[in-house]
Write a structure and sequence with these properties.
The chain is of the alpha/beta class and 290 residues long. It contains twelve helices and 13 strands. The structure holds uridine 5'-triphosphate.
Amino acid sequence: MKIKKAVIPAAGLGTRVLPASKAMPKEMLPIVDKPAIQYIVEEAVKSGIEDILIITSRGKTTVEDHFDRAPELEDRLLRSGKQQAYDEIVAISKLANIQYIRQKETKGLGHAVLCAKTFVGGDPFAVLYGDDVILSETPVCKQLCDAYEEFGLGVAGMKEVPTDQILKYCSLAVENIRDNLYKVTDMIEKPSREQLFSNFAILGRTVLPASIFEILENTPYGAGGELQLTDAMRTLAKREGMVGVDFEGTRYDMGNKLGILQAIVEVGLIHPEVGSEFKEYLKKVTSRLS
Ligand code: UTP
């Protein structure tokens, strides 16, 4: 079955990137000239997604404004002959059919996904974390949707991460099926060193069947007092089975300060407008480093 719906949770408080995220959603932080969440919406669209639900919260209205028409700005661009900028701005508002719902309290990623229950209905759907930009040849969301089509099971996008980092994510118990595809048999959110299954963590993307909602409704609040999507996916993996895709792509975590810097430097270096100048500038800077 083709996946046509996606949910983008973007309601978190972003405490790791304060003060930038005090009055501006971290999902709107730009990588050079494009907000993180636009990369994510574009990835979903390139993966065949038609309907998107963005989960927002107080103080996140700029996300809605970004994907809306901007008549005054459009008019000004047209009148001053800036056709290319006009086309670009209008295209953003036509990317997909985007809807919004507010998560009234930030009770965790699982709680945010639960807000999508009515939107999703009975169909399987993709989840793209609103602060995880992943650049790749084949969109990662598509890599996961393809695995869903093949196996008919929930799919987790995963990568191996260093041990000190996995303690902050979740650890997966996996068995290789073939190539980059794995059977996921168990998982644990924010494990201690003794609890590690492997260094594979779920990063930024999943495809889930609608049965996840009933599971979420019956999952107790977990690590950090939040309703953890990982805890619900654990039940899903044990009950129905789940597949892991060791995806191809470079991930930038826009929810932490180093991730933001890495994204800007790498995208800046290949940016068509400023890339070559930026490269020269960086060479000068790096030659001063010891
Ligand atoms: P994070 O755990 O990175 O978000 O969730 P956070 O809570 O904003 O981060 P810190 O720890 O305070 O810095 C991953 C994605 O899930 C969304 C976030 O907006 C982010 O895009 N999220 C998280 C929600 O939508 N609701 C929540 O209750 C929590």
